[in-house]
Every structure is written in structure tokens, then in C-alpha cells.
């Protein structure tokens, strides 16, 4: 008896239910963000009297949302640059060359996928403090930029799949090792790099724990910490919490949908051996 169609049907049903529930929550949050705090508290599930942008105006003017947004954007861009530079060079060395203990090095990066940063936050905190980077966005960038396990794994698999003829042709043309990497190998890995950037962007943008530990002043804090400040007194800041959640979710969601094809292509290129 072939159970494959039945399993596919069950899996599809679960995914549709989960996706529908997620979209409902997103739509509900967006809908509530256009209502006044009085309506939210007195008529939560009712129809609004009018839709207005007062919550968003208040978010930008009174809550200084733009500063939090710029902080999150700066940390995101700086972290992605560090991750791509380090992961691509490390993965190229592991993927293209044979050396002793190569499997141990790969295992080291794979183990990193199993342990969250929370397990080592105490020594990380002490190290960042001793470096003088506490309450500095650079401290957050260094901690988040050290999460190389997934990027190294995907890029290593990709570089291992590339035919050796490409490397040998570059050598015959007189290209140095760095020229071969920068002009031949790195451009070929662009689908994988796209997927890494999008996947890591979602993680970095929504990162709450590391900025909470490393950043003390509001001028350096990120959007998730801004939303936490609102939720600490939710009944008083419900309108700002709704508008802030929408502004935190929608940009990265739009970015993910735009580049979703690149994500699938990159994961397929970096995760399946030919």
C-alpha cells in the first residue's frame, strides 16, 4: 500500500493551517494598529469608527522609532558583512582543499548549530566588557557575527560541488588564490549567499536576547527592545505596541517574500550534493 499521497496530504494540510493562522495574526495586528487605544481597549474585536495613522505618527514622533530602526538596520548590515566575509573564506578553504582533521573542523561548525548563544552568554558578556564594547552596537555585531555555523555549512557544501576544472582553468590563466576566489568562486556562490543573507537577516532583525544583555542605553537599542518597553506597560502603550510590531514585522517580511526564490535556490545549491 502506498502511503506517500496520504502523507503529502497530511503535511500540506498542517502547513496550510499553520500558514493561515500566521497570516490571520499578522492581518489582525495590522488592522488593530490603525485603531485608537480607546477602541482597542473598549471594543477589541469590533469594527473601527475610522482608520487613521495616529498610532504611527505617535510612534515616530513620541517613541523615536526612527532611531531604533536605524540601530537595527546598522547592526543587521554590519553583521551580514562580517558573516559573509568570514563564512565564505572559511568555507572555501574547507571545501576546496584536503587536509588532516578536515572532518573535525566541519564537525566543529555543525555542533555550533545545536548550541544557542544563551548557553555561553556569561563568558561572552565578560569578554565584550573587557574589550570595552559593552553598551556598544559593535559588541552586538561581533557576537551575532560569530554565528557562522549555518553559512559555513551551506557554502562548504557548495564549494565542494564545484568542478575542479574551474579552479584549474583559473590557475592556468595565472590567477592567484585570492583572484580565483574573488572573481570566480565567490560570484558562483551568489545564490547561496543570497539565501544566507535572507535567513540571517530574519534572525538578526528579530534578535532580542543579545541586544538586551549588551545594550543599556535607549539610544543604542533595537526595535525588539523598543517593543519590549511598550509591552512592560501594555495597557498604557497598547496602540504603540501594535504599530511598532507592524513596523518591525512588515519590512523584513516583504524582503523575505521578494527574495524567497533566491532562498530556495541557495539552499538547494548549498545543501544537496550532486
From TrEMBL:
Coiled coil: none annotated. This is Carbohydrate ABC transporter permease. Keywords: Cell membrane, Membrane, Transmembrane, Transmembrane helix, Transport. The chain crosses the membrane at residues 12-31, 74-94, 106-128, 140-159, 236-259. The keyword Hydrolase does not apply. Belongs to the binding-protein-dependent transport system permease family. It is a multi-pass membrane protein. It is found in: Cell membrane. Gene3D superfamilies: MetI-like. Pfam families: BPD_transp_1. The lineage of its organism: Bacteria, Bacillati, Bacillota, Bacilli, Bacillales. It comes from Paenibacillus spongiae. The keyword Calcium does not apply. Residues 69-259 form the ABC transmembrane type-1 domain. Its main location: membrane.
Amino acid at each position: 500500500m502506498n502511503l506517500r499521497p496520504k502523507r503529502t496530504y497530511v503535511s500540506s494540510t498542517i502547513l496550510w493551517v499553520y500558514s493561515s493562522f500566521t497570516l490571520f495574526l499578522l492581518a489582525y495586528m495590522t488592522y488593530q494598529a490603525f485603531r485608537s487605544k480607546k477602541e482597542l481597549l473598549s471594543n477589541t474585536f469590533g469594527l473601527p469608527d475610522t482608520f487613521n495613522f495616529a498610532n504611527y505618527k505617535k510612534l515616530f514622533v513620541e517613541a523615536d522609532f526612527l532611531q531604533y530602526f536605524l540601530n537595527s538596520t546598522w547592526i543587521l548590515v554590519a553583521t551580514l558583512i562580517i558573516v559573509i566575509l568570514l563564512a565564505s573564506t572559511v568555507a572555501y578553504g574547507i571545501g576546496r582543499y584536503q587536509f588532516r582533521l578536515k572532518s573535525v573542523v566541519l564537525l566543529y561548525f555543525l555542533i555550533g548549530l545545536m548550541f544557542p548563544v544563551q548557553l555561553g552568554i556569561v563568558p561572552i558578556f565578560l569578554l565584550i566588557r573587557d574589550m570595552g564594547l559593552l553598551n556598544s552596537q559593535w559588541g552586538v555585531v561581533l557576537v551575532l557575527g560569530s554565528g557562522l555555523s549555518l553559512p559555513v555549512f551551506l557554502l562548504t557544501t557548495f564549494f565542494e560541488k564545484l568542478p575542479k576544472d574551474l579552479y584549474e582553468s583559473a590557475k592556468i590563466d595565472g590567477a592567484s588564490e585570492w583572484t580565483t576566489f574573488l572573481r570566480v568562486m565567490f560570484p558562483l556562490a551568489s545564490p547561496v549567499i543570497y539565501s544566507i543573507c535572507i535567513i540571517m537577516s530574519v534572525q538578526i532583525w528579530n534578535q532580542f536576547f543579545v541586544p538586551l544583555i549588551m545594550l543599556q542605553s535607549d539610544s543604542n537599542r533595537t526595535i525588539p527592545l523598543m517593543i519590549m518597553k511598550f509591552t512592560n506597560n501594555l495597557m498604557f502603550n497598547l496602540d504603540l505596541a501594535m504599530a511598532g510590531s507592524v513596523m518591525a514585522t512588515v519590512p523584513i517580511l516583504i524582503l523575505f517574500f521578494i527574495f524567497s526564490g533566491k532562498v530556495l535556490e541557495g539552499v538547494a545549491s548549498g545543501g544537496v550534493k550532486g
